[in-house]
Design goal:
By secondary structure, the chain is an alpha/beta fold. The chain is built from 28 helices and 29 strands.
């Protein structure tokens, strides 16, 4: 049905809105109590939502109840769809076409409703542009107003933070992904960027939306400033192009300028510890290998009780600061809180009643308003005096006094909301009764007309009986006639002159008076007028809250920080964490360190049930230094704990640099600029990469980007190819990391290649370590203790026995191993077994020694 002449006025309305929408946007069109979808939108929605697909005049249709809109929209957004809401702009009137207008376009990156967001996670919309000068990016959390811009000549410096932020939606220039995919294979950074964009919902915009000059003007207009100098940004900053695209897209989707953007911050990779995407995955920082938060570092160190606190912790982990005084400040605050457990518990309990002020403000400022949002502000302000009192108990000289001073009580706003809002608040303005009785006399009067009309009618009836002397006089009401005074025929001679006859009945007459007609009109419109008056009062309360939005936002930031630090203090007490010492040195020293995630898992009820008792985690020491013990080469059997050990060193280092205390007896960390990891093995067949290619890609990234201030953990380099190829690669990697004669990146290198242990004779800063095991009756017992010196062998057959291989296989493997390890290269094996390649001994010499040989 495309001929306009054949369209009904309502469908003409529909197509007028539909034509202005971005491609692939589902239009929900309000018809009475339902939102309807038509044509292909209806087919798509019926499939995704399980709606009944109907037809009217061959037009596919699917409808959903308006009161269930949010739930259905949430499902569509989760499926990666965009949804446009076209609502009625006026009440329906018989015989008149209702005016409708587009009120909002919802996409995964621009939604604001509370039930469409994970309260504990940041929700970013990001924009990217790549040119000869590098990668330019901006990201925006529309629900809180956080707005950042960045630019870097090296993709590898920005991709880590973008991956950690995990934006819900990307904005890129039309055709950009195809161009990224087509670059030569040696441009690995561009391919990594293509992979990042391909894994997320990406919306394409024309390139002119990413123009830096236009973007600067758009951003300034939105922020209401004449220049960007106050934010430390030049108008020529290339990241302003993507920033302008974000503001344009948000404005289009909100159908209005976003009102909660108050500032723009620049992100610089040189100010943060970088964790590349492989390291985020390998170390399970934000999610475990199962894809859930459980089992991740974030889950292990998260003791927050507020949504804003949980999001702040996520941001701190996504971009750990290199600001040493800031790190030390956080650690000191944790120490002050930890030192007084009673007051710590009091602060923690009070924070548990704090509401999500940043997102409440975001919704209020962007026209998503309901009474419970104001209730959240009221309830939060009610806790501020108690929190300040509790913090004062730590002493006037404590660093916590600074945080306490940043909490603004706003007593006038608190009292206004307390006296104006009812205790129990509805989620919908149309429900009414959210303004407390006694707050406004006019509203109380209007409400009384609906709640007390029976009393008023009884009083009127009694007064008229006394005035007229007619004892049988009655005041009645019918739906068709309204309010009236009924007089029997026997008393008609007593009817006063001011009575107006309206209807004759079998038994008498019905009358009205001017006072009764006026009261009837008031009663009929009382509920409507009461709701309208209540809405006026609500809007005044919203305005009062928004007048204090800056103070509320600053208080919310402090509450979120206090929540994170309080949680860390509880974590430190519960798990006996130590305060790490951070400095600008080059030493990484950990005494009796433990894996923060594995330790908690071992002491969990599920682990105790599986083992019959709670297992204790075995702590270990670590000492690395750029100019001394730079490389720790770790050998030992599978299952002995090598991977757990090297991971725990990286996680402890990361925890220390975000300001958290750490699972160790003592810890000293010289600031690390990047953490790299190459752990585990997995295919990436969708992009044509085998396990070995993934391993080599990640290793290449490390070798090309690590600095002397980096921390590197490597596990089983070279295992994905033949023995000699793998050994050669692993050997060369160790030598490369050792670098010059004086210093190199601190490195933990776990391997099964026993031959590499000979490198300590020629690489001065390499130290051999092994994971101790004990043998008993041809079986091994894992001690989990890291000790100096190389492992004597790999114990692979013993581990295979533990895995349950048939004894016949185990016995045969022992025979073959004995022959391969013998010096007799002429030993023959049965025909059923392939001839073994004779084992060769390796004579080690320095990398620059021309006599290096495999004998």
């Amino acid at each position: 049905m495309s001929d306009p002449a054949k369209l009904t006025p309502m469908m003409q309305q529909y197509f007028e809105v539909k034509r202005g929408l971005p491609r692939d946007t589902l239009l929900l069109f309000r018809l009475g109590d339902f939102f309807e979808l038509f044509f292909d939108d209806a087919v798509t929605a019926s499939r995704l939502l399980g709606l009944t697909l109907t037809k009217r005049q061959e037009t596919p249709m699917a409808g959903l109840p308006s009161q269930a809109l949010d739930n259905y929209v949430s499902k569509l957004l989760a499926a990666g769809k965009k949804v446009a809401i076209c609502d009625q702009a006026e009440p329906a009137k018989p015989g008149k076409l209702v005016r409708r207008q587009l009120t909002r376009i919802l996409s995964p990156g621009t939604t604001l409703a509370a039930n469409q967001l994970d309260a504990a996670r940041n929700h970013y919309l990001a924009a990217l542009a790549l040119d000869k000068q590098g990668l330019h990016a901006a990201w925006l959390d529309l629900s809180t107003g956080e707005f950042r811009v960045a630019s870097d000549a090296h993709i590898a410096n920005l991709l880590p933070v973008l991956t950690a932020l995990d934006p819900a939606e990307l904005l890129i220039i039309e055709g950009e992904r195809e161009r990224w995919a087509a670059v030569p294979h040696d441009q690995t950074a561009v391919h990594a960027l293509h992979g990042f964009a391909s894994e997320r919902l990406a919306s394409e915009l024309p390139g002119y939306h990413f123009d830096a000059v236009t973007g600067a003007k758009t951003v300034m207009d939105t922020l209401g400033v004449l220049n960007l100098q106050g934010f430390g940004l030049a108008h020529s900053h290339p990241g302003l192009g993507p920033a302008g695209a974000l503001v344009y897209y948000a404005t289009e989707n909100l159908c209005a300028k976003p009102e909660n953007l108050r500032g723009l911050q620049e992100y610089r990779s040189t100010r943060t510890l970088l964790l590349d995407p492989a390291t985020l995955r390998n170390l399970e920082i934000f999610s475990s290998s199962r894809g859930t938060r459980d089992g991740s570092l974030l889950h292990a160190i998260n003791r927050t009780v507020t949504a804003a606190g949980a999001r702040l912790l996520e941001r701190w982990l996504a971009a750990p600061t290199l600001d040493l005084p800031e790190i030390q400040r956080r650690q000191s605050l944790v120490g002050e809180l930890r030192a007084q457990p009673t007051r710590l518990a009091e602060v923690h309990e009070l924070l548990g009643t704090v509401r999500d002020i940043p997102r409440i403000l975001g919704r209020l400022q962007n026209r998503l308003r309901n009474p419970r949002e104001l209730g959240g502000v009221r309830d939060t302000l009610a806790q501020i005096p108690g929190l300040r009192h509790a913090l004062a108990g730590f002493g006037p000289d404590a660093r916590l006094a600074t945080l306490s001073a940043q909490l603004q009580e706003l007593p006038a706003l608190r009292d206004l909301l307390t006296h104006a809002l009812a205790d129990d608040l509805p989620n919908d303005l149309s429900d009414g009764n959210y303004v407390r009785a006694g707050h406004n006399a006019e509203l109380d009067r209007l409400r009384s007309l609906t709640t007390d009309n029976k009393t008023w009618l009884s009083d009127l009836e009694r007064a008229e009986q006394e005035r007229t002397g007619i004892r049988s006089l009655k005041v009645r009401f019918t739906n068709n006639f309204g309010y009236y005074i009924e007089i029997t025929k026997a008393n008609l001679h007593l009817v006063p002159a001011d009575y107006i006859r309206r209807q004759t009945t079998v038994g008498g007459e019905r009358y009205v008076t001017e006072a009764l007609k006026l009261k009837e009109k008031e009663i009929f419109h009382a509920e409507e007028n009461a709701l309208a008056r209540e809405l006026e009062l609500f809007n005044a309360l919203v305005a009062a809250v928004l007048d204090e939005s800056i103070a509320l936002a600053q208080t919310a930031e402090t509450l979120a920080e206090l929540d994170v630090l309080t949680g860390w203090a509880l974590l430190a007490r519960d798990w006996d964490y130590a305060q790490p010492v951070l400095d600008d040195g080059e030493v990484l020293e950990i005494t009796e360190g433990r894996h923060p995630v594995v330790e908690q898992v071992l002491r969990s009820p599920d682990a105790a049930l599986a083992r019959g008792a709670t297992a204790a985690f075995v702590p270990n020491d670590t000492l690395l230094a750029c100019d001394d013990a730079q490389i720790a080469l770790l050998t030992g059997p599978n299952m002995a704990g090598k991977s757990t050990y090297i991971r725990q060193v990286a996680l402890i280092t990361l925890m220390a640099q975000v300001g958290c205390w750490v699972p160790a007896k003592a810890c000293r960390v010289g600031l690390v600029d990047r953490i790299f990891s190459r752990v585990g093995a997995s295919d990436d067949l969708a992009r044509g990469n085998s396990t070995f290619m993934v391993e080599m890609n990640e290793t290449a990234n490390i070798l090309n980007n690590a600095t002397d201030r980096s921390l590197i953990i490597l596990d089983e380099i070279g295992r994905g190819t033949s023995t000699y190829d793998g050994l050669s690669i692993a050997w060369a990697v160790v030598e490369h990391l050792h670098r010059g004669p004086e210093r190199g990146p601190r490195t933990l290198f776990a391997t099964h290649y026993q031959e590499l242990t000979q490198l300590d004779k020629h690489l001065l800063r390499l130290r051999n370590f092994s994971v101790a095991v004990k043998e008993w009756n041809d079986e091994i017992v894992f001690v989990r203790r890291v000790i100096p010196g190389a492992a004597d062998r790999s114990y692979g057959i013993q581990v295979a026995r533990l895995a349950g291989l048939p004894l016949s296989v185990i016995d045969r493997a022992k025979t073959i191993l004995a022959k391969l390890e013998s010096d007799d290269t002429d030993v023959s094996l049965p025909a059923a077994t392939p001839q073994a390649r004779p084992k060769k001994k390796i004579s080690v010499a320095p990398a620059d020694d021309s006599q290096l040989s495999l004998l």
